[in-house]
Fold this protein.
Amino acid sequence: MWDPLRAHFAKVADRRFASLVDDARAADFSAQFGDMLFDYVKTNIDADGRSLLIDLLEQAGVAAKRDAMFAGAPINETEGRAVLHTALRNLDGGPVMVDGTDVMPEVLDTLARMEAFAEDVRSGRFTGQGGQITDVVNIGIGGSDLGPAMAVKALAPYHDGPRCHFVSNVDPADIAGVLRACDPATTLVIVASKTFTTIETMTNARTAQAWMGAEVSDTGAQFAALSTAADKTAAFGIDSSRVFGFADWVGGRYSLWGPIGLSLMIAIGPKAFRAFLRGAQAMDVHFKSAAWDENLPALLALVGIWHNQICGYTTRAVLPYDNLLSRLPAYLQQLDMESNGKGVSMDGADLTVPSGPVVWGEPGTNGQHAFYQLIHQGTRVVPCEFLLAARGHEDDLHHQHQLLVANCLAQSEALMRGRTLDEARGKLDGKYQGEELERQARHRVFPGNRPSVTLAYPQLTPEVLGQIIALYEHRVFVEGVVLGINSYDQWGVELGKELATALQPVIEGAATTQGKDGSTAALVGFLRSNGV
Ligand code: F6P
């Protein structure tokens, strides 16, 4: 199924795609949905390439798999589960059936309970033992942290609730730093863990319990839990009225839309949270109904497949020119790499093409002064994904936002155009002659022909953020289906967890390093002799 695309790439690989770009291409190689414009004009994908990529979607059966996902089929085959995070934002869709039962009544009931609790916290009807809640501390890791942490930051202009903090790392420096800034008598601790067994989260939760217990008589009263494991949240001492459950068909990295989003809901209020859900729901409807060549998730996936599996570019830079999205790259690292970083296809056979790419990035313009050097002149090609708001939220600083926009557009233009040796010579303006001119000019050449896409939107509202996150979720889904992998399990995180559990007594000195490899044993020796 890959051969026609490989053959096509062989024909066009050396072409300078800037030569393709005109007004007609600008219209043809971009698509709009809702508030967004997705531009993939500055890539080497042409009409033939695009139609071969769309053939790939057809051959992989993306439409049937998509419909199976939305219909609640157990497409997470290695865990025997449905994949239905979309049900959490199905605000005015119809029933969603899992094993013959409509899950929507329970989803909407939990949403209503979250809303009532969030309003109680925000209004002061729910208090700590020292009065109105001033601080919320979300303790969770991975999908139980990155989603709400990213979204709370992204929607800071809409934040009118108590301060929100996030603790994820088992490194005591993380929780100590957060708790230092909070008053136990007016803090709500939310323990966010789908399984309620994750060692980092449970260790931090017990640390928070002890911190609160030193000041407050009834610590359990200021704890809430977000989990699928009601028995474990009860055993931890959290009253069921403050436990918000969800089903196992919500994957951790897809869980922001339900109870795991409680801290976001408390920060921005239930109304704005609903707008966030509505944005995502609109993207779901678009993904289900738009033709592939107008379907934003499918197009984003096609660009990803073209660059990674066909062109062989192994990384993908996510570059938001929107400081509110500063945690988006970290969020997408889990969403994309935990989903599509797999070496075998659904049937257990080795993949014959590379798995998902390495995802990384930083907000512009910070990245420009850090790693863009490599993106422009390094020997590796790094496809870039720019995100850009037409307007910020700081009306009095609009001129500064315009400078940000100019920088973003300048980068994608520079990546495409580059600078020739002749142009570089011209820039030196008679400063050097002869061999020295050649030498100096060569350092100032930009190869160009480096691809990028741009996702532009009017302003980062709750609704637009919902659209963006759902767009990336479905992109990951499409790429996973084309690769033939299971995007919804994460067995690759297990081995490290098992070995850490086995190493803990060794680190504590209760067991020896016997049987450990020489490197690990030597590191343990060094750390123990230095006070670990
Ligand atoms: O890193 C593995 C993982 O299972 C993620 O998929 C998940 O988001 C994270 O751990 C946290 O899991 P939990 O919500 O169960 O604590």
About this structure: The longest helix spans residues 462-483. Residues 3-12+35-60+290-417+450-489 form a domain with the Rossmann fold fold (CATH 3.40.50.10490). The radius of gyration is 25 Å.
